[in-house]
Design brief:
This protein starts with a helix and ends in a 20-residue tail after the last helix. It is α+β, with helices and mostly antiparallel strands. It has one domain: Orthogonal Bundle (Arc Repressor Mutant, subunit A). Helix 2 crosses helix 5. It has a three-stranded antiparallel sheet with strand order 1-3-2.
């Protein structure tokens, strides 16, 4: 349903990834999805130009996160959080199958006890 509100599957996917990981980079999403890197980068640019996301360079990678200084961004992510929490466990496992940070061996990608 979030993709219908945002008007784009890529926009919804980015928002879910930012909500789940806190920080994300374009190639990470492109690797996990069927979308082109350039299309994902364009959507990141739209979010950043409108103050929803902010970015920083880490080496050669641009990392995006929530713009916590923007009241619009805070309200927007409150809405995204509602949709994120409404995702089923299967949807979360499908969307976030690839871990973006190191974790202990055998630890599940989605902690079912915290849902």
């Amino acid at each position: 349903m979030l993709e219908e509100i945002l008007g784009s599957k890529i926009a919804a996917l980015i928002m879910y990834h930012v909500m789940h990981h806190g920080e994300i980079y374009a190639r990470g999403i492109a690797t996990d999805s069927q979308f082109a890197l350039s299309a994902i980068q364009k959507q990141f640019d739209r979010f950043e130009n409108n103050g929803i996301l902010v970015s920083k360079k880490m080496g050669t990678v641009r990392i995006y996160s929530v713009n916590k200084k923007s009241p619009v961004s805070n309200a927007f992510f409150a809405m995204v959080k509602i949709f994120y929490q409404g995702l089923s466990l299967e949807d979360k496992e499908r969307l976030f199958a690839t871990r973006r940070r190191p974790r202990r061996k055998g630890k599940p990608v989605i902690n079912k006890n915290n849902l």
